[in-house]
Amino acid sequence: MRALYFERFGDPGVIRVAERPDPVAEPGTAVVSVRAASINPSDVKNVAGSMEGTVLPRIPGRDFAGIVIEGPSEWMGAQVWGTGGDIGFTRDGSHAELLAVPVEALARKPESLGFDEASVVGVNFVIGWLGTVETARLTPGETIAVFGVSGGVGGAVAQIARVCGARVIGIDRTDPEGTPAAAVLDEFITLTSDSTDIGARIKRLTSGRGADVVFDSVGGVTTPAALAGVAYRGRVVVISAIGTRTATIDLIDFYHNETRLFGADSRKLDVIESGIRLTLLDRYFDSGAFRPLPITRTYPLEAGKDAYFALADGIHGRVVLRP
């Protein structure tokens, strides 16, 4: 099979298209013919050596959608989707014509989604679900403020929050107009560097209370604003750190407010655990409650290096490989 492949860490220039041995469906394993696989920022960071635990040499790629061609008879020909914190890191990933995964990881793709659309769901919606539902335990009637709402994770969180029955405030430098998130927002705040101002604006929109949950999909540079906008005994979920790995916290304000600060990391969910969550999400896509994020550009596998460079250069939106 053909696959993207890297033997050392570096910029996308270290990636090459290589012939690799076809994976074999051993007991408990299935082989998927990959029809589409998205490229996430974490894939670019993985190739750069910025992600922990990657074993070289490696085929990268976390998200995928395709058809089972080897494995148990009940799965043969099934259209599936998946993601995982292990594939592309400690086991070969989805940026290839074929992918081997445990049978337990198989999750049937929503019938309403094509392969391209299904391939951009994984990372964004799994971490969105993990942070919003499982970690913050958002409940009906609460207010959530979503930093980075115009991005992949933020756009997923906004939709998940709406299904949870929450009021949704989106925060970003760019308006999410034209994205699925725009249709579910109750309010939008343009992000500035003034964390005090952002916190005050969130509180003005919540009658002085602040948001019950703040989902910070940016992190680092936005952490002070996230903490400034959270309600008494509110929950802040952080999944990233952009610009800086550290944040200064006024501990007196922090404990007086009894703020709950959580980290959520989808890398801790392997392809099996991620498949369980995708199965939970399936019905929301088929009902139309969730919509996949817009795809900006598609590339053939042969142009995989170009696709990685495009993402590294800051292309906005989802990028998809078609092996």
Largest sheet composition:
7 strands, mixed
Topology order in helix (H) and strand (E) letters: EEEHEEEEHHEHEEHEHEHEHEHE
Number of contiguous helices: 9
CATH superfamily annotation of the largest domain: Medium-chain alcohol dehydrogenases, catalytic domain
Number of DSSP E strands: 15
Shape: globular
Mean pLDDT: 96
**Residue fraction in strands:** 25-35%
Q: Which ranges are low-confidence, i.e. pLDDT below 50, for 5 or more consecutive residues?
A: none
Whole-number tally of structural domains: 2
Brief summary of the model shown:
By secondary structure, the chain is α/β, with parallel strands linked by helices. The chain is built from nine helices and 15 strands.
